[in-house]
Specification:
The complex is a heterodimer of chains A (573) and B (89). Chain A is an all-alpha fold. Chain A contains 25 helices and three strands. Chain A has two domains: 107 residues, Helix Hairpins (Orthogonal Bundle), CATH 1.10.287; 439 residues, no CATH class. In chain A, helix 4 packs antiparallel against helix 5 and helix 17 packs across helix 20. Chain B contains four helices and three strands, in the order H-E-H-H-E-H-E. The chains are: A mainly alpha (573), B mainly alpha (89).
């Protein structure tokens, strides 16, 4: 842009009809000494036309103010009748037009079309046809990085928790003369196993949050919301319906509250029901565990597939419901700000990672620990058999008995053991609890006897194994493009939980463990939200929809699980 | 000009980026932002990000369901980009 050398003086005037009324109002104000002493008459006239509440209240109190306000009302009516527009809009319009004309007269724009680099990239990234495939490719990359690169650290955390930490806890209790007591069982088999089973997945979540933080800080995630607007309209929802669903990828609870941005009640209910299918971060450890055990070479793809399946289910169910129960949704346009692309900053990425990971870890020390204690208690109570409290065969525990009563319902899905069923029940508390319950129920076999170590030896070993895990993580980077630099021996070794889970699913599925695992994963994706989300759902959508959601989604989950397993058997998988 | 912005948004089917809208109306971004803020104050446009933050503030103050019920510390909020839509009449 070039600044010209001459600077003409231009007086600002409103349109003639407004100027006429302003002149009359100014004259009246000038004749009122109380007002004329304090305010410029024209300025006050403009403020009154703009309905400035404070000034109107002041005018009401002065002598002659009533007459002035009557004149004001008449002026407003004349302007609005003449211009067919609200007065404040006319005043603002006049100002904008004036500035626009002055700028156009004063500036010479050398480049008429100034497309920034961000605009040029967006022509591809938000393209009608390319936008969604690019979005899916990016998300596939995210999950590939998450699954492949976090594996060495998952093994490290697992080794530390089941090794030194368990050993130290047992040693401390032995020092206090509590070795072999129920307290040792509670601490080791309950809390450490349960909470530790979930904390093992902290590297997975950190890796996911790292990737998402990069995408958000770079400006890409706004584009993702932009391209997903189209599928939402296809199912008849307003484009902004996808915005609460984006929140649902983190946690379903704020997603329910975010439905308040939708004014139409039907849209709010439908969006709330569909937000559940956006896999929240709590489900990720379950996906990763099962994908690693049953689909080891395609773990990243399986996890990605679960997220995509959730979106597809939301679109299909949304389409059906919008043409049946929720007819008549009003489509409205969406204007979004796509921030310019930029290089993510380390500080922002770290802060986002840290904040979200800490939220997960904090949950481990509250909800998950409490549930682990309750599960331990139920597993410690004998039902039948010769066991005593905290010294009973787990298959004859209260937990096994309770879970065992409904386990047969899951046989058509290829599961049907009390262990896997019990985990689904406790998953109602929080989805991560599925993992902690499995860690407790499947891992009850005696731990491998550890070599005698010293505290210093343990600490040194923790450091060495951390360095090894870091080196393995760096070596796993080329895995993203299919190049495996890890030796066979360095590939993740199965933990006892993984082995127990695989064996159990092989037994219950009649040798079709992968198919049963897939059915189980789809069940986890689909069934009732966790209790916190249910409370939010009741508050936002009402009790009726809450119950419909719990029952409907659980039945749908079971049906899908059965179809997947039985259908897979029929197809010879 | 001001009414043109609102009419152009109403006429949009689907979604549009603020930069695209500014180019279409031959306005610079700052001017368009000011006009959009005007229509938000008039109640003709909804500021979705602001509405979301208000919804979350409401749930945390009212004894919300989330165990970390504070939208300023909830790690999963704040992901909604700045966006606007026509207010339903």
């Amino acid at each position: 842009m070039t600044l010209t050398t001459t600077t003409p003086i231009i007086a600002f005037r409103y349109d003639e009809v407004i100027e006429t009324e302003l002149a009359q109002l100014s004259q009246t104000i000038a004749a009122m000494p109380t007002l004329a002493q304090s305010y410029q008459p024209r300025w006050l006239a403009v403020q009154l036309l703009e309905a400035d509440e404070i000034l109107i209240a002041h005018v009401e109190l002065v002598a002659g103010g009533g007459a002035l306000l009557e004149q004001l009302t008449a002026s407003v009516a004349r302007i609005e009748s003449e211009c067919n527009e609200d007065v404040d809009v006319m005043l603002a319009e006049n100002r904008y037009r004036f500035v626009h004309n002055v700028v156009n007269a004063a500036l010479i724009r050398t480049n008429e079309e100034q497309l920034t680099l961000s605009d040029k990239i967006d022509r591809v990234v938000t393209h009608r046809m390319l936008g969604i495939p690019i979005f899916l490719l990016v998300m596939w990359g995210v999950f590939k990085v998450t699954a492949d690169m976090s594996a060495p650290y998952v093994d490290w955390v697992d080794g530390v928790i089941n090794g030194p930490i368990t050993h130290w806890a047992a040693s401390l209790l032995a020092l206090l003369g509590l070795s072999g007591s129920w307290l040792e069982s509670l601490l080791v088999d309950g809390i450490i196993t349960g909470v530790g089973g979930v904390l093992v997945f902290v590297p997975v979540l950190m890796s996911l949050y790292f990737s998402l933080a990069i995408l958000e800080d770079s400006g890409y995630m706004a584009r993702a919301a932009f391209v997903m607007d189209r599928p939402m309209r296809l199912i008849g929802l307003p484009g902004k319906s996808f915005l609460p669903m984006i929140v649902g990828f983190g946690c379903t609870v704020p997603a329910y509250y975010a439905t308040r941005i939708l004014e139409n009640k039907k849209d709010r209910i439908l969006t709330g029901l569909l937000a559940h299918f956006m896999s929240c971060s709590a489900r990720l450890p379950v996906y990763v565990l099962f994908a690693t055990i049953f689909f080891p070479s395609q773990a990243g793809f399986v996890v990605f597939g679960m997220y995509v399946l959730g979106i597809v289910m939301a679109i299909v169910l949304g389409f059906i419901m919008n043409h049946t129960i929720f007819k008549g949704s009003e489509q409205s346009p969406l204007v979004m700000e796509l921030p310019p692309y930029r290089l993510p900053t380390a500080k922002n990425v770290w802060l986002q990672m840290q904040n979200r990971t800490w939220s997960f870890v904090r949950k481990a020390w509250t909800v998950i620990m409490t549930t682990s204690i309750i599960v331990w208690l139920l597993m410690a109570i004998p039902v039948g058999g010769n066991g005593t409290f905290a010294n009973t065969d787990v298959n004859q525990s209260a937990f096994a008995t309770l879970a065992g009563t409904i386990a047969p319902l899951f046989k058509p899905m290829g599961t049907g053991s009390w262990e896997s069923t019990g985990a689904l029940i406790t998953g109602f508390v929080a989805k991560e609890v599925i993992i902690s319950t499995m860690a407790q129920t499947y891992n009850i076999a005696e731990s491998e006897s550890a070599e005698e170590t010293t505290f210093l030896g343990d600490v040194t070993n923790i450091g060495i194994t951390f360095l090894t895990a870091t080196i393995d993580t760096i070596k796993s980077i080329p895995l993203i493009i299919g190049i495996n630099l890890l030796d066979e021996a360095e590939d993740s070794t199965a933990t006892s939980l993984m082995s127990s889970l695989r064996t159990n699913f092989e037994e219950t599925s009649g040798g079709h463990a992968a198919l049963a695992a897939l059915a189980y994963l789809v069940f986890v994706l689909t069934y009732s939200p966790c209790m916190t989300a249910v409370a939010a759902e009741r508050q936002e959508l009402g009790t009726r929809w809450m119950w419909l959601s719990i029952i409907g989604q659980t039945i749908l989950a079971w049906l899908l699980g059965v179809v997947i397993f039985q259908g897979g058997l029929l197809l010879g998988m | 000009m001001l009414r043109e912005v609102l009419n152009e948004i109403k006429a949009t089917s689907g979604s549009i980026d603020l930069n695209q809208l500014a180019r279409k109306l031959n306005l610079d971004r700052q001017t368009l932002d000011g006009m959009i803020e005007f229509w938000v104050r008039k109640g003709k446009l909804q500021d979705i990000q602001k509405a979301n933050n208000e919804a979350l503030a409401c749930f945390s103050g009212g004894g919300g369901a989330c165990h970390s019920c504070n939208p300023t510390t909830c790690a999963h909020t704040g992901q909604i980009p700045r966006s606007f839509t026509i207010t339903l009449q």
